């Protein structure tokens, strides 16, 4: 009886579904986090009778076949890149991206990573860095005795040094975009990596056509809809229970068959 193995694939699929939903809920308050959903596809089918097969010498044909599916498998986890809400922080080094784009970060091994988390800080050398101490790319250094930092919507960074009334331009925050954003690989710490699926990073300026703006003094909240996630979690639980019930029913039927004398 194939029902046992078919239902087992359904239970494994729902376990994956629950894992994805649980991760979404756990990161409901993670800055710049993008929720994901599990995508599934059916497995191959075993054909018992082909549709269109002849059923008589007169040429009549079977209008439908007998195809038994062998279950389900996880096709992938799709990241949903919708915009998160804006959280005011009153910190001049906190910036949020309102629209498309990612900040580029220089990792310790020299590689590039990308993030939507604009919780920037200053290093001991005055460099603008991430919460992990990694330098943003291009690098920006805030001079000593800086009283305030202004970052406009186009990413231009200016500093008021000491008693000067005219700000000093320090540089510009650039962003990176990708043809296929869901194809980027998440690696933790709010970082994503470019892959062959995502395509190469395209360096752009904030405010360019199709690119987001910089909002100083804000952070982007996660785009997790907790109510929807709880609803999906209940649905996954019910699907898991139904698959387990299928296994129980198949076992009872096999038991009854074995007891036939």
From TrEMBL:
NCBIfam families xrefs = FlgEFG_subfam, flgG_G_neg
Instruction: Enumerate the spans annotated as Flagellar basal-body/hook protein C-terminal domain.
Output: 215-260
- Provide the protein name: Flagellar basal-body rod protein FlgG
> Pfam families from the entry?
Flg_bb_rod, Flg_bbr_C, LlgE_F_G_D1
Origin species, per record, is Thalassococcus profundi
Boundaries of every Flagellar basal body rod protein N-terminal domain copy: 5-34
Any idea where this protein resides?
Bacterial flagellum basal body
Q: What is one process in the GO biological process aspect for this record?
A: bacterial-type flagellum-dependent swarming motility
Endpoints of the signal sequence = none
Q: Which residues form the Flagellar hook protein FlgE/F/G-like D1 domain?
A: 96-159
Cite the InterPro entries for this sequence: Flag_bb_rod_N, Flagellar_basal_body_rod_CS, Flagellar_FlgE/F/G, Flg_bb/hook_C_dom, FlgE/F/G-like, FlgG_G_neg, LlgE_F_G-like_D1
- On whether Glycosyltransferase is a keyword of this UniProt record, the answer is no
Q: Which SUPFAM superfamilies match?
A: Flagellar hook protein flgE
Instruction: Say which domain of life the source belongs to.
Output: Bacteria
A GO CC term? bacterial-type flagellum basal body, distal rod
Keywords associated with the record: Bacterial flagellum, Cell projection, Cilium, Flagellum
Q: How does it assemble?
A: The basal body constitutes a major portion of the flagellar organelle and consists of four rings (L,P,S, and M) mounted on a central rod. The rod consists of about 26 subunits of FlgG in the distal portion, and FlgB, FlgC and FlgF are thought to build up the proximal portion of the rod with about 6 subunits each.
Give the family this protein belongs to, as stated in its UniProt record: Belongs to the flagella basal body rod proteins family.
Chief localisation class: other
């Amino acid at each position: 009886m194939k029902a046992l193995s078919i239902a087992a694939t359904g239970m494994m699929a729902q376990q994956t579904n629950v894992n994805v939903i649980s991760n979404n809920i756990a990161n409901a308050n993670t800055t710049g986090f993008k929720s994901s959903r599990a995508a599934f596809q059916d497995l191959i089918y075993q054909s018992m009778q082909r549709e269109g097969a002849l059923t008589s010498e007169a040429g009549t044909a079977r209008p439908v076949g007998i195809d038994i599916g062998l279950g389900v498998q996880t096709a992938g986890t799709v990241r949903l890149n919708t915009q998160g809400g804006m959280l005011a922080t009153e910190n001049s080094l906190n910036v949020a991206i309102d629209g498309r784009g990612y900040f580029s970060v220089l990792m310790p091994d020299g590689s590039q990573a990308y993030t939507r988390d604009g919780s920037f800080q200053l290093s001991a050398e005055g460099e603008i860095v991430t919460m992990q101490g990694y330098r943003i790319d291009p690098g920006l250094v805030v001079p000593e005795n800086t009283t305030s930092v202004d970052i406009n919507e186009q990413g231009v960074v200016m500093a008021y040094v000491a008693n000067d009334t005219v700000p000093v331009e320090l540089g510009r925050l650039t962003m990176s975009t990708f043809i296929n954003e869901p194809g980027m690989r998440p690696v933790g710490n709010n970082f994503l990596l470019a892959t062959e699926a995502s395509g190469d990073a395209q360096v752009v300026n904030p405010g360019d056509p199709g690119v987001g703006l910089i909002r100083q003094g804000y952070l982007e909240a996660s785009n997790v809809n907790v109510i929807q996630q709880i609803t999906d979690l209940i649905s996954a639980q019910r699907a898991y229970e139904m698959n387990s019930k299928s296994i129980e029913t198949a076992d009872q039927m096999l038991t009854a068959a074995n007891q036939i004398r």
